[in-house]
Write a structure and sequence with these properties.
The protein folds into two domains: 93 residues, Double Stranded RNA Binding Domain, CATH 3.30.160; 62 residues, no CATH class. Helix content is 29%, strand content 15%. It has five helices and five strands; from the N terminus they run βαββββαααα. A five-stranded mixed beta sheet has the order 1-2-3-4-5, covered by helices on one side. A hairpin with a 2-residue loop joins strand 4 and strand 5. About 15% of the residues have low confidence.
Length: 194
């Protein structure tokens, strides 16, 4: 890897490779560098965490000034020297983000005055359209929370499109093979409707 003092002018003059990436190390701060790709230039910092080399991206060179990126690199190198892996922290933050299931659960916690019919309707909607919502959810009753939340939702075993349609009105022999008068359609003749 070539080494040079990373300044704004030097960074702007560096050519983009046609294929792959080229790494340039800074002479002022060991571990700080610039990765030049076919379309972008990114600052990075490289250090050791528990005997393993870790490379962390700081940001784009057209967004960060080299002095600002160098200060950020210095703080990241300090964290790495203490044994903290910034890449592992980023991974943990991504997995701890709010999921659809958590948002659904928070909705019910915030609206305690919903009628049972509304709660049932929302659960049905979630059961039909949000089938993956129930995975890895804690038991709500064990946690001391109301029983109407996400923990009781079960994925629909048969998709709505493939489920069996409702059976038509049964024509009982007791009625003489006729449909009862209260369930008949309107008596408009076919000639008036297409």
């Amino acid at each position: 890897m070539p080494s040079l003092r990373l300044t704004r002018r030097v960074i702007d003059e560096l050519p983009h490779p046609k294929v792959g990436q080229t790494y340039y190390r800074d002479t002022a701060l060991p571990g700080f560098g610039l990765r030049v790709g076919a379309r972008s230039k990114m600052f990075f910092v490289e250090g050791q965490v528990h005997g393993r080399t870790r490379r962390v991206t700081i940001g784009r060179a057209d967004v960060f000034a080299p002095e600002v990126a160098r200060k950020r690199a210095l703080s990241l190198l300090g964290e790495m020297a203490e044994g903290n892996d910034p890449n592992e922290q980023k991974r943990k933050e991504r997995t701890d983000r709010v999921t659809m299931a958590a948002a659904f659960e928070r909705f019910f916690e915030a609206r305690t005055n919903l009628s049972p019919h509304t709660v049932s309707s929302y659960q049905r909607t979630a059961r039909l359209y949000l089938k993956g919502l129930n995975h890895h959810q804690p038991n709500r009753q064990a946690a001391g929370r109301p029983a109407y939340g996400v923990g009781h939702l079960r994925p629909c075993s048969v998709p709505w499109e493939t489920s069996t349609p409702p059976t038509p009105w049964p024509v009982a022999p007791a009625w003489g093979g006729r449909v009862p008068a209260h369930s008949r359609t309107s008596r408009v003749s076919r000639s008036t409707h297409p």
